Structures are given as C-alpha cells and as structure tokens.
Amino acid sequence: MILPIIGYGDPVLRKVGEDIPQDFPNLKEILANMFDTMYNAYGVGLAAPQVGLSLRIFIVDTSPFGEDEDLEKEEQELLKNFKRTFINPKMLKEEGEEWGFNEGCLSIPEVREDVYRNEKITIEYLDENFDKKTEVFDGLIARVIQHEYDHIEGILFTDKISSLKKQLIKKKLQNIMEGKTRPDYKMKFVSPKKGR
C-alpha cells in the first residue's frame, strides 16, 4: 500500500527513532508498504519517520543509480543490485575523504543541495529476517545509507548545508510546510493552507 510521505516541518522527522523487537506488530506489512511508497515516489531510500513512524528502520534500493552512464561498469552493476532493509542499525564508523553530492529528499521535494559526507562507512544492522550483519560500504551506497540513517536520528540533509544556503531555500521549505508544493507522489503536510 502506498503511504503519504511526511513533509518537511513535521515533528516526527525530528525524533530519534526507537529500536524495535523481532515480534513488532505488522513489520512485514510496514516494510512492504515502505518499498511500495519509495518506488511510487522514484526514491532510492526511505526511512520509517518519512511515513510517520518513529522507528529505527530504513530501506535502500540504489538500482536507479545503476543506469548512470558516467559510472564505471563495475559500480553500475553494484548499484543495480543493491537492495537492503536496515532494522535497528548502528553506525560504527564513518571514514575517508568527505565528498560532495547533490542530494534531495522525498520529504523535502524540489530542494536539492550539495552535501558532504565521508566516503566509507561501517554499519551494524538487522535485516528483514532479524539476522545481524556488520558491513562496510563506500561511494553512492554509503551516501544513501548515511542519508537514511540521519532520518532515524532526526537529522535532515538541510541541516548539513551552510547558513547562506539555508537562507536561500527558506521560502521553499515554508512552501513545503504549507502544502504549496505538488510533487507527483502522495504527501502529508504540516499545515496545509485551507481551501486549496
């Protein structure tokens, strides 16, 4: 089922998500709905707070990046086949050079900014079967994971840009909160203007 994506300004996006137990009610359904919602919005990642759930869960499917002709064949293949569910993740290490990439977010439509992140991460998490994993990722995969991990920590990519850039996008953020933006997917806004 496709769920509405929670728009910028909603308090749920600022909460630190809670760990979940293995017998968490309707977990399979929640994950299926998250994947449906992400694919419907043409996203490569989605965190539980973005569908209104303050839980430590996010999903990633980088296959759209695998179509990028500018990338080397090996990286294209890696991205095309990377699909994961992260439950109760813990970021163990972020290392390597920081590099910039123009990021966007389904909760902040029509806003894109260059964000600098470390190139390599080590993360511990449970998969959809509650099997524990510790893995090292780099490049675009690491970046998508870092972006989604921030969501479960109550952090948005707009927190990582300069004050000047924040000033420049202030009106766009206000428009999102008021429901004046119209992405081509279902969203829930904080205070949509009446009579629209």
TrEMBL record:
It is an enzyme of class 3 (hydrolase). One of its GO terms (molecular function) is peptide deformylase activity. Keywords: Hydrolase, Iron, Metal-binding, Protein biosynthesis. It catalyses: N-terminal N-formyl-L-methionyl-[peptide] + H2O = N-terminal L-methionyl-[peptide] + formate. Its cofactor is Fe(2+). Binds 1 Fe(2+) ion. The active site is at residue 148. Gene3D superfamilies: Peptide deformylase. One of its GO terms (biological process) is translation. InterPro entries: Peptide_deformylase, Peptide_deformylase_sf. Fe cation binds at residues 105, 147, 151. Its EC number is 3.5.1.88. Pfam families: Pep_deformylase (PF01327). Removes the formyl group from the N-terminal Met of newly synthesized proteins. Requires at least a dipeptide for an efficient rate of reaction. N-terminal L-methionine is a prerequisite for activity but the enzyme has broad specificity at other positions. HAMAP family: Pep_deformylase. Belongs to the polypeptide deformylase family. This is Peptide deformylase. It comes from Flavobacterium macacae.
